[in-house]
Design brief:
The protein is an alpha+beta fold. It has three helices and four strands.
């Protein structure tokens, strides 16, 4: 099984928040920062406003799966932080995927969009 590259340290999250560019839609906020690494890493954040731990973990799993399935169409060498908004707690996979890909298009990080 392929290793999943994720942002885990608070310091790394803070760097992306501070130095990255952000776009948002109704369901998600996405921060993107270019790095020298060859792989793209993702960090997912969901505050208590989204729901209890079960709901927050479900949202994180949904976003992680959307990223995993669409990783091949994204540029490499990026750090991406996705913040889940409270409006997303009732949404399903396809809606989350379209919101994620919409933000990827705004950031211009899709390979075919260049």
């Amino acid at each position: 099984m392929k290793r999943f590259h994720s942002i885990k340290k608070n310091k790394d999250f803070q760097i992306v928040y501070r130095e990255g560019k952000s776009y948002a839609n109704k369901l998600l906020i996405m921060y993107v920062k270019k790095t020298e690494n060859e792989q793209t890493r993702i960090g997912i954040s969901a505050s208590k406003k989204v729901g209890n731990s079960v709901v927050r973990h479900r949202m994180a799993r949904l976003v992680r799966e959307v990223f995993r399935l669409n990783e091949s169409i994204l540029d490499t060498g990026l750090d991406i932080v996705v913040v889940v908004r409270p409006a997303a707690k009732e949404e399903y996979f396809k809606t989350m995927e379209s919101a994620f890909l919409h933000l990827c298009g705004l950031h211009n990080i899709k390979k075919e969009s260049k």
